Automatic annotation (TrEMBL):
Signal peptide location: 1-31
PANTHER family: GLYCOSYL HYDROLASE DIGH
Stretches assigned to the Golvesin/Xly CBD-like domain: 522-652
Presence of the UniProt keyword Lipoprotein in the record: yes
Organism lineage: Bacteria, Bacillati, Actinomycetota, Actinomycetes, Streptosporangiales
Acyltransferase as UniProt keyword: no
Name of protein: Uncharacterized lipoprotein YddW (UPF0748 family)
GO biological process: carbohydrate metabolic process
Pfam families reported in the protein's UniProt record: GHL10, Golvesin_C
Domain Glycosyl hydrolase-like: 44-363
The organism of origin for this protein: Nonomuraea fuscirosea
Alphabetic keyword roster: Lipoprotein, Signal
Entry-linked PROSITE patterns: PROKAR_LIPOPROTEIN
Length: 653
């Protein structure tokens, strides 16, 4: 995407409707009685676009070895998992070419640097397998009409369909496009896309915002001959062009679901359909109108049910005069309401903290505030971020803010369609190990959700499953290790999910007693009697990620002045030491923690800008018996930002 068009719009995919429903399917009255936390929704699409055109994200450049390309892609998926995402939208047909061995179109130039050059493996098969191994949905992103980011047909490989059929294409604005008004072109594009759908285990088909080309001043789209030949029933060329795009959308919807009913079909249109100054049905905006400028009647696609989801690129900040974010989320929510089409929001991660962007985008909270605004609209089922490299860059800590405020727990994908839920699985074992609680179960499903509840309840309360507070992970395996488990007594439940994410009733609970070796685990909070700190340590409730009622903070200084957490260690032995702290871009990147281990103090540094709102391990240490200061938080660090002391957990292994 060019910088200009990225500023105007966005780029892509994916799926789903917010549903807070317990896996045991409680009655509506029971579900309504559950107090759910809006910050930990049960279901939410969380995805990022991985762009291949011009090597925006992946591969990072052309000509990489197979091993290097694959390592890069695995790293993108690992990033998605680390940010608690559950899907990726990957560009597999960027410029009328293919990231798989297609009989319709040549290998993409963005793989090897040469159009038609065999990369030495099947990237699409590899990508789908790697995504599913991490239980990430894989949405294949296709650009329908773009042939090349130049206008010289001779630069295309000689076997390219656009060279063999010169009447199919036109040049406009320095680029080459397939002509959407030619029926043979539409059939060909659909066939090329369906080749991937039929041969690969993709979860979704995704189109971006490029339909007819964005307007170029002083230039007219050269399709008069096609209009004369095929547009006889239309009194103006605009209506004819919109119908050409509508036919592609409607026919793709039909063909995808006829081939594989579980595959979702979604489009990520430009964020404005029409302004209400032009059309009373439009939004209270005054920007470019995709209905008129690129002939994309995205509102009609929703009302006709031709898509499973829509992901409008609402790439503008809150309060932006031309197109306010909050106005457009409300408008699109109204459009999809009652249609069965799911709404997700395309988010401009590329703008957060980037030079040259409006002042609003220099605020680390702007992107997070978008997701907070989404909570007002139950129609909003999630978000897709453009693009992967901007998620990784995390300029000004903006994406860390998103994770800390909205993605503290995993989330199931929104359910699609009306398929029956699978049968409940059965937990066969739950045992403590050195790295957590290890679970195994039997069942027959696509994936599984694992829940952990404190204590040993006599029955499964439906409210245990009403949001994600007790959800510890999802997997496509029939085993799971809960590495976040402490030494307390827990009860685990597992639910099964089918391909479209309908969830079974939960399994029978499986109890796990306290940790062995004396069954000792203790939490020391900064507000409790085991905590001590000097007068330089302030008290704050600023972050919602706090443990207990508040937490302590202090400026770094060239002196230790530690805040200490004292505990009564029952006997000498090996103990896991964990800490809890809120995270913020203004906190310290190398906070020193002191562990009073047998044989002498050990110091571990943690980056408190990230990873907050959860237990973080400092490691396993041999501790002596007795009551003493076990863990300290030191102020002696050369890095800037507050050091934080909140809570410590010590567990006998």
């Amino acid at each position: 995407m060019t910088a200009l068009l990225r500023t105007l719009m966005a780029a892509l995919t994916a799926a789903a409707l917010v549903s807070i429903v317990a896996p045991s399917q409680p009655t509506p009255a029971a579900a309504a009685a559950c107090a759910v936390d809006p910050a930990t929704p049960k279901r939410q699409l969380r995805a990022m676009w991985i762009s291949s055109v011009a090597n925006i994200d992946w591969p990072s450049r052309t000509g990489l070895s197979v091993a290097a390309q694959q390592a890069e892609f695995r790293a993108w998926l690992d990033l998605a998992v680390a940010k608690r995402m559950n899907a990726v939208v990957v560009q597999v047909r960027p410029t009328a070419d293919a990231f798989w061995p297609s009989s319709y179109e040549p290998w993409s130039q963005w793989l090897t640097g040469t159009q038609g050059g065999n990369p030495g493996y099947d990237p699409l098969a590899f990508m789908v397998a790697e995504a599913h191994a991490r239980n990430l949905e894989f949405h294949a992103w296709f650009n329908p009409y773009r042939i090349a980011n130049h206008d010289d047909p001779s630069r295309l490989i000689s076997s390219h369909p656009a060279r063999r059929n010169p009447g199919w294409r036109f040049a406009y604005g320095g680029k080459l496009y397939y002509n959407p008004g030619i029926p043979e072109v539409r059939d060909f594009i659909e066939d090329a896309i369906m080749d991937a759908v039929s041969r690969y285990d993709v979860d979704g088909v995704h189109l971006d915002d490029y339909f007819y080309p964005y307007p170029v001043s002083g230039q007219a789209i050269p399709d008069a001959a096609a209009y004369a030949q095929y547009g006889g029933s239309f009194s103006n060329v605009g209506d004819w062009r919109r119908e050409n795009v509508n036919l592609l959308v409607r026919e793709l919807d039909q063909r995808i679901h006829a081939a594989k009913s579980h595959v979702s079909f979604g489009i990520s249109p430009f964020g404005i359909w029409r302004n209400n100054g032009t059309d009373p049905l439009g939004s209270r905006t005054s920007g470019l109108q995709s209905y008129d400028a690129i002939y994309a009647d995205s509102r009609k696609w929703v009302k006709q049910g031709w898509v499973d989801y829509l992901a409008p690129q609402i790439y503008w900040h809150m309060g932006f005069a031309t197109a306010p974010y909050e106005v457009l989320t409300a408008w699109w929510s109204d459009v999809v309401r009652g249609t069965g089409v799911q709404l997700v929001v395309g988010q401009a991660a590329y703008r957060a903290g980037a030079s040259g962007q409006d002042a609003a985008w220099q605020d680390p909270a702007e992107l997070s505030d978008h997701l907070t605004d989404n909570r007002q609209h139950p129609e909003v089922a999630g978000d897709i971020f453009f693009s992967a490299k901007d998620v990784r860059a995390d300029r000004i800590g903006a994406f860390t803010r998103v994770v800390n405020a909205h993605y503290t727990r995993p989330a199931l994908l929104p359910a699609r369609g009306t398929a029956a839920a699978p049968a409940a699985p059965s937990i066969t074992s739950a045992t403590r190990g050195s790295n957590g609680v290890q679970l195994a179960w039997t069942g027959s499903a696509t994936s599984y959700a694992v829940y952990r509840v404190d204590g040993s309840p006599t029955s499964a309360d439906p409210c245990f499953f009403a949001d994600a507070r007790n959800l510890v992970g999802t997997t496509r395996q029939k085993t799971f290790t809960d590495t976040g488990a402490g030494g307390s007594a827990y009860t685990y439940y597992v639910a099964a999910l089918n391909r479209t994410h309908q969830e079974s009733a939960p399994s029978a609970g499986k109890a796990v007693g306290q940790g062995g070796g004396g069954a000792f685990s203790v939490v020391i909070d900064n507000a409790g009697p085991g905590f001590a700190a000097g007068s330089a340590w302030g008290t704050s409730t600023y972050s919602p990620q706090l443990h207990g009622a508040d937490y302590r903070f202090a400026e770094p200084v060239a002196a230790s002045d530690p805040a200490w957490f004292s505990a009564a260690v029952p006997s000498a032995g090996d103990y896991r030491v964990e800490v809890w702290h809120p995270a913020d871009p203004g906190y310290n990147s190398a906070t020193p923690y002191i562990v009073a281990a047998s044989g002498g103090n050990r110091t571990v540094t943690l980056d408190q800008r990230t990873g907050g709102g959860a237990w973080r391990s400092l490691g396993t240490y041999r501790l002596d018996a007795g009551t003493y200061n076990v863990v300290g938080v030191s102020r002696w660090t050369a890095t800037t930002g507050y050091v934080i002391a909140d809570a410590v957990r010590i567990t006998r292994l």
